[in-house]
Amino acid sequence: MKTRIFMLLISALLLFSCEKTKYEYNGNITGADMAMCACCGGYFITIDGTQYRFEKTELPDNFTFKDNELPLKVELNWKLNEETCSGFSWIVISEIRVIK
Q1: Which residue has the higher pLDDT, 14 or 64?
Q2: Residue 10 belongs to a domain
């Protein structure tokens, strides 16, 4: 009996100690960038009133969407991609999920 109570307590501790992902930003994926230029392409996302671009192929593995689902409200964590063309606001999304 003591073993069962002990295992139950350990299980409860593990369950409640798991850190859940905290998303810092809300955004809206609005559509694909269809422009034909060297630094164009990807998808547009609006975060706090500012429009950025991101590559769909660089999203976390657990997140996908189809173009016919857009616009799509999301929660996410991101940072500016410093290695892209200047004057274009590309971002790297580290965590993202759909707001239902």
Answers
A1: 64
A2: no
